[in-house]
Design brief:
Elements (H helix, E strand, L loop, with lengths): L14 E2 L4 H7 L2 E2 L3 E6 L2 H17 L4 E5 L13 E5 L6 H15 L4 E6 L3 H5 L2 H17 L3 E7 L5 H10 L2 E8 L2 E9 L11 E4 L2 E4 L3 H11 L13 H14 L5 H19 L3 H10 L2 H9 L1 E2 L5 H16 L15 E4 L1 H10 L3 H10 L4 H12 L5 H14 L4 E7 L15 E4 L5 H17 L4 H9 L9 E7 L3 E3 L2 E3 L2 E6 L16 E6 L3 H4 L8 E4 L12 H4 L4 E6 L4 E6 H5 L11 E5 L2 E3 L13 E2 L2 H6 L2 H16 L3 E9 L5 E10 L21 E5 L6 E12 L1 H6 L3 H15 L2 H5 L1 E7 L23 E5 L15 H8 L3 E5 L10 H6 L4 H4 L10 E5 H5 L4 E6 L4 E6 L9
Parallel strand pairs: 3-7, 3-8, 4-5, 4-6, 6-7, 12-13, 30-31, 31-32, 32-33
Antiparallel strand pairs: 1-2, 8-9, 9-10, 10-11, 13-16, 14-15, 14-16, 17-18, 18-22, 19-20, 19-27, 20-21, 22-23, 24-25, 24-26, 27-28, 29-36, 30-34, 30-35, 35-36
Helix pairs in contact: 3-5, 5-6, 8-9, 9-11, 10-12, 15-17
């Protein structure tokens, strides 16, 4: 990106009015020395803005000069004290520039200027590079003379390179456009001034400025106003640029012969593969649903080159399926406007090579082993990297487009969200509250991109790749940049609703539920609490077939509800978490009556009407949302339509909002094929075990289907010892110990089961052992022990990234409640079985009071453990096989 020359000269500090008090308030007025460029879609819009400026200037006794050179209608009509000077651009760049500079010299310091639309100069000079040259010569001189000057450019008429040069030179750049009859003013650059609303698009009406905070409205407005928001070199050597140009020429030719139609189809497929990838299953959907214009739209929003990755591709195709495939509901009025950008996968490799990181990444990928401490050092190396000027220029264009709207930087690797590999939660996503001065917003965004790039070699990702046989595969990291859905509330920004929706429900808590109709995991605020396991907080689980059915009753509804909200704090420019009551206490949050209930004497009371005066201690139940809106019906339509077209169950992420009339709006953030767990091994016992002494435990809640035989090792973290004896430091270390056991060759050669208190994978060590996917990925079964006397309560992980890890790795998950007599929990076996921890990890013997590695045959007289889990009856049992162990085990 070119150096910013806008600071040339010292501007005066005297405030100057634009003639519109509302605009003055947004940009903190003009300053002496400002050059103001208005990018307009119509010259008339420039006149609307220039005339009040001229009136205000003349009213203050300023010297005002109108430079007239274009054939369009007069920007300023003749009036007293207005000096109009005509300059002829037909004489060429040199003569025209000299005449204008002479006028500036003659009029002296402190004069005000209004120029005709600069775009008219191209008609005489035939190149917008000369236009940029003129501006770069004239603007600094005007600033040196302490003037204020108005200019206009027609949007979309000039190369991005020329506009970038003008942007870098001017002090103030403001986009002006009409969308559906409304006039919008969007400051892009305002040198030396800042406010927390300055760079948002504003609706301009009756001389008032209304900032557009709501993400859906902002997306719709900007998508219509900016067809090609990124600068791109005319002589770009990107491979798909040649295909793009051929496609453009054929499409613009009008009537297409059969031969040309065949060529068009082949080129379209080639263009699609170059950007979206070459998965046969996915390409079938892309070829059918993505039009040429859809592919052009992707190209116009891609920073750099390469592919956009699995997450981005899945989102784009899923959206088109919902808009075009036949269904029971018209979703065109439901789905929010797509408003994303893409950083191509080629940028990732260029970043690695240019910053001497390629060999590091190659070494880590091949070794598949890295500690958390080593990874922190890797992140520091990535954060020190730099991007080339062309990429920086395109990033600047994108940030200008978004203004101060919060954005999220999401991984979109080539293998991510594909048929067979989800990589759910393996790579990083980074929120950018996107507040502050332009240079601060740029730095925060680039750091977010670098952290996502570094996550390609984090321990969880490497373990996942190794287990899926992808260690040496070509895994390039593209990035999806999305506008954060939601709107501003006080100093916070967040969506009303967010969650995950599955087209198939794997965990039925009653046989009344139809698993084929799917399930939703719903939260208030950002969706981070829907996809992650968070201690002490519970999303609302909604069975689409029976949305009113809950697992809990009475006061347990409050105990198992969402208490905290993830959001973006715009005043602090950061991601944060707040208690729900802090958001709800004023009662003025939009549509809150649809989300909350009160619970008194074990009775749930939902609000009647929109007023919450009678609601004390509101609890998030979302009861009225389901009873008074089409929310569940909409999600049923979305998931069922996608499953039908995909030919495969699907897993989606979404945000949602409720309009004033109760209308539902959905922003589809992600869609990927969903893997269904099944019976893993064919040699299942023909019947349930009859001898109680052979049973290790039974489970009867949230049971998946599956059978595991010949479990040799049980890794048992004692719930009582963990709760009563372990220090905080010991609890923090236990995840590392479990990870070491998980990676030991003995446990990789034989089947193993992991059992422990509360919630595996929770970041809160008081609720369970803090482990990552890399610490559990070799286990065949994962058991969460809910021992009430120790204060441990398992949490249904369904819908989280943690859950998807278990499903993809075919790890059976079982919550077990030993205090329940029906659990038949064999305390004596786990208490008296010998501990082989010293044989597995001799350096970790200090943890033997908390962690026990049980060699089942050695502890049970040469028998193995087995698990039978029946999803239909919601029963599971773990027992010791009666068959003797072969001599050669």
């Amino acid at each position: 990106m070119e150096a910013d020359n806008s600071s040339t000269g010292r501007p005066g500090e005297t405030p100057v009015s634009t003639g519109f008090p509302a605009i003055d308030e947004v940009i903190d007025r003009l300053r002496m020395g400002d050059n103001v460029v208005w990018q307009v879609d119509e010259v008339e819009n420039y006149s609307i803005l220039a005339r009040p400026f001229a009136k205000a200037a003349l009213g203050e006794g300023r010297k005002l000069i109108y430079i007239r050179f274009a054939p369009h209608p007069l920007i300023l009509k003749p009036r007293e004290n207005l000096l109009t000077i005509k300059v002829d651009p037909a004489q060429g760049f040199d003569s025209f520039s000299t005449q204008v500079n002479t006028i500036i010299e003659e009029q002296g310091p402190g004069a005000f200027y209004v120029f005709d639309n600069l775009s008219a100069l191209v008609e005489d000079w035939a190149t917008d590079q000369l236009l940029a040259n003129f501006f770069q010569v004239t603007c600094p001189y005007l600033r040196e003379m302490d003037t204020v000057a108005y200019f206009a450019l027609t949007k979309g008429k000039h190369s991005h390179v020329a506009v970038a040069r003008i942007r870098d030179t001017t002090q103030v750049l403001i986009d002006v456009y009409r969308v559906q009859g409304n006039l919008y003013i969007h400051p892009v650059k305002v040198l030396g001034r800042y406010s927390n609303q300055m760079f948002l698009p504003h609706r301009f009406s009756n001389q008032s400025m209304t900032p557009i905070f709501q993400s859906g409205e902002a997306s719709e407005v900007l998508a219509r106003a900016s067809k090609q928001p990124l600068r791109r070199k005319a002589d770009s050597s990107v491979p798909w640029e040649a295909v793009y140009k051929k496609l453009s020429r054929i499409e613009q030719a009008g009537v297409i012969s059969p031969e040309r139609a065949q060529e068009l189809g082949a080129l379209k497929q080639e263009f699609c593969r170059m950007m979206l990838g070459d998965s046969p299953q996915f390409n079938r959907l892309a070829d059918e649903y993505l039009s040429l214009n859809d592919l052009f739209a992707v190209r116009n929003r891609m920073i750099g080159s390469g592919r956009i990755g699995g997450k981005a591709s899945g989102m784009i195709v899923a959206r088109k399926i919902l808009l075009e495939a036949h269904g029971e509901m018209d979703l065109t009025r439901v789905l929010e406007q797509h408003d994303s950008f893409f950083i191509g996968s080629d940028v990732f490799f260029s970043f690695l090579v240019n910053n001497d990181l390629f060999r590091l990444r190659m070494r880590l990928t091949r070794s598949s082993q890295i500690s958390d401490e080593e990874f922190k050092q890797v992140e520091k190396r990535f954060l020190a990297g730099r991007f080339p000027p062309e990429i920086m220029g395109q990033v600047q264009d994108m940030l200008d487009y978004f203004g101060q709207a919060p954005i999220i930087v999401r991984s979109s690797s080539l293998l991510e969200d594909g048929f067979g590999n989800a990589f759910a939660g393996k790579y990083r996503s980074e929120f950018c509250a996107n507040q502050g001065r332009p240079e601060q917003r740029m730095e925060a965004f680039l750091n977010a991109v670098k952290l996502v790039y570094a996550s390609a070699v984090n321990p969880d990702a490497l373990a996942y790749r190794r287990q899926r046989g992808l260690g040496e595969s070509d895994e390039q990291m593209a990035i999806l940049v999305q506008r954060v859905s939601g709107s501003r509330y006080k100093n916070f920004f967040f969506p009303q609703l967010a969650g995950v929706a599955f087209s198939h429900n794997l965990y039925r808590w009653t046989d009344r539920i139809d698993p084929a109709q799917g399930v939703v995991r719903l939260v208030f605020g950002l969706g981070t609490r829907a996809v992650n396991r968070v201690g002490g907080d519970y999303p609302r689980m909604i069975a689409i077939s029976h949305p009113d059915l809950r697992q809990e009753t009475g006061d347990r509804i409050k105990a198992y509800s969402q208490r905290r909200v993830d959001l973006l704090d715009l005043s602090q420019n950061t991601f944060c978490t707040k208690p729900f009551e802090e958001i709800a206490k004023s009662g003025d949050y939009p549509a809150l009556h649809l989300f909350v209930s009160s619970i008194e004497n074990d009775f749930v009371q939902d609000p009647v009407g929109v007023l919450l005066g009678g609601i004390k201690n509101p609890v998030l139940t979302f009861n009225n949302l389901m009873g008074q809106t089409d929310f569940v019906r909409v999600l049923k339509e979305i998931t069922s339509k996608l499953e039908r077209v995909y030919g495969y169950p699907v897993d989606t992420e979404f945000t949602a909002s409720v309009g004033p009339e109760g209308n539902i709006r959905i922003n589809l953030l992600q869609c990927r094929p969903m893997r269904l767990p099944g019976v893993r091994f064919k040699d299942a016992p023909a019947s349930w075990p009859s001898r109680k002494e052979s049973v290790l435990f039974r489970a009867g809640r949230m049971i998946p289907g599956g059978v595991i035989n010949k479990i040799r090792y049980i890794v048992f973290v004692d719930p009582r010892a963990y709760s009563q004896k372990a220090s905080p430091d010991e609890k923090k270390s236990l995840g590392r110990v479990v990870g070491g056991i998980n990676r030991h060759p003995a446990l990789q050669e034989h089947r193993a089961m992991l059992m422990g208190p509360g919630r595996w994978g929770s970041s809160n060590i008081s609720l369970g052992v803090n482990t990552s996917y890399a610490d559990i990925n070799n286990m065949s079964a994962l058991v969460e022990i809910g021992l009430e006397s120790a204060g441990h309560v398992p949490e249904l992980s369904y819908g989280t990234h943690f859950f998807l890890d278990l499903v993809e790795s075919q790890i059976i998950y079982l919550p077990v409640y030993p205090d329940d007599p029906a659990a038949d929990f064999n305390f004596s076996f786990f208490e008296f079985a010998p501990n082989s921890l010293g044989d597995i990890l001799p350096d970790c013997l200090q943890y033997r009071d908390f962690v026990k590695v049980i060699d089942v045959p050695a502890a049970s007289g040469n028998r193995f453990a087995s698990i039978i889990a029946d999803a239909e009856s919601q029963k599971a049992v773990c027992f010791l096989e009666e068959a003797a162990l072969p001599d050669s085990y």
